[in-house]
Amino acid sequence: MTGSPPGAMRVWTVPNLLSFLRLAGVPLFLYLLLGPHEDGWALTVLALSAITDWADGKVARLLNQYSRLGEMLDPAADRLYILATLVGFVLRGFLPWWVAVIIVGRDAILTVFIPLIRRHGYPPLPVLYLGKAATFGLLYALPILLLARAAPPIAPVADPIGYAFLIWGIGLYLWVGVLYVKQHLWILARTPVVPTQARPTARSVAGA
């Protein structure tokens, strides 16, 4: 692609492999949480996911292994872990169902806009820094709440911290959702529909 940074089209990079490992851990996490109820091991998988999330960004900068696929895999893995944790928590009775509905519903609404703005020549919009802060809050809240279940003696301390992160995370998540909706509506109202051959595809967005 013209104007793409060097290496943007690469797939098999160390950061991408770390992201693939994170994705592979999602079903393992769900099994541990919902099958044998091994909350301690499930928490370990979440912790390893957080470590690899931090590591892939560091490695990408250190080895100059930026790629468009990596830009897509990282937030995808974050959302899958959030979704898996929410599903597991609701089924285990750790959280009320409406918390999951709010978070999943927000993402579902935004997903509807992707094919619509693609008709106007736009790929999925880049992640906002405020959105990263919202994801950060949720990714801290859910493991802390799981820690409270895995280690009941520390629950009186872990629960308030976890719920504080959860409230801030949900608030920011919804606010960022509003910002995204406004951006999508602006594109749909102010830009023309482009010919089919000029529209971005999943392969072109990934740099393939």
Draw up the topology in text.
Elements lengths: L13 H21 L4 H24 L5 H25 L4 H22 L10 H22 L4 H36 L11 H5 L2
Describe the structure.
The protein is mainly α and 208 residues long. It has one domain: Four Helix Bundle (Hemerythrin (Met), subunit A) (Up-down Bundle), CATH 1.20.120. It is built from seven helices and no strands. It has helices spanning 14-34, 39-62, 68-92, 97-118, 129-150, 155-190, 202-206. Helix 1 packs parallel to helix 3 (68-92), helix 3 (68-92) runs parallel beside helix 5 and helix 4 (97-118) packs parallel to helix 6.
- CATH third-tier fold name: Four Helix Bundle (Hemerythrin (Met), subunit A)
CATH architecture term = Up-down Bundle
Tally of strands? 0
- Structural Rg: 19 Å
Count of DSSP H/I helices: 7
Mean pLDDT: 85
Low-confidence stretches: 1-6
In brief, what are we looking at here?
Helix content is 75%, strand content 0%. It is mainly α and 208 residues long.
Question: Which short descriptors sum up this protein?
Answer:
about 210 residues, mainly alpha, about 75% helix, disordered N terminus
